[in-house]
Fold this protein.
Amino acid sequence: MFKSELRLLNAYLYSDFIAVTTTIQYKTGQPAYCRYFDCNQVEIPNSTWQSSFFPLNTVYCVRRAGVKFVSISLQIDENFEKPPIPLIYRAFEEPIHEIGMCVGPFYGPEKRWLTLIEFVEHMRIYEVSMFYFTIFDLDGYSRLALDEYENQGIAETTVIQTEYEQLDWMFHLMQLHDCFHRSRSHSKWVINADIDERFVMLHPDLTLSGLLSSQPENVGELNFQAQRIQKSQKSPEKFVNLLEAIANLEALKFRKTAKTKIWESSKSIYRPEKVAVQTYHHSHLQYPEIIVKNVPRDVAYFRHYRVTSVSNSIGNGWIYGDNFTDTGLESELEKLLVHRVANMVEHVYG
């Protein structure tokens, strides 16, 4: 990744700066040069501005009048070859969405159509109104569901092209940094999770939006414990009938739950404008006077359906001894989830 080809992903226009995300991951401080273009993609004379990579694959640029497209070069006198990309408007006075979700990247051969629908419908129950997806590789059958969510206006997708034939979890960094900027100013609070991780509220008199709105302005992030559930089989390859699809929902089919290690693999919900650097499970750096809070396990947590039927680059170290229990969703939540998934599956694949 650190020697990959420089490709531009997205350029986000905020009220006071521009952030350009790329596929190359350099050390912080590596020089980079912002290049500015008008609406005809003609470079604006004498406008080049020196910046640097921070962190890894992101370059911050100053705003300039009349700019509609931008690009990045590694040398100030470099013959320009990288096509410029359009600015994505993110200079909103107030966020469009109260709760958005940065979803871990799609890669690998597994068919994800049913997991994708179950994940989205589960999180929509908790008032998530925008999903930011990233695709390295996704089969066409699963893409039907994702396209439908985009058509409904509740999803945005970034497709990343790289020269690598085999991808693993380390490529999450590209997705994390791009989604961090895509969601900034667009969603007030952002959940950072993969499609095999589902948020669950346990407090009977509290909603997720209520929990978030009750936080003081100096809170930039909430951390939640994750509980791992064994997923011993892959999801079905294609839709056969509605009964089979419902029977294969992860929330219904998998209940074997590992003993929780306190704050191992915790997940976060954060406010992008209050956080400077985001990592896999939580923020790495916050702005001055911003604090991070841990939410008690009896208020809310994440259920992580961890695949154990195949080996992967992380390994199968999900098992903590032999202390297991059977856990599931609360019955009313389960019924609502089944109803929503059934409607969407029937709509897309029925």
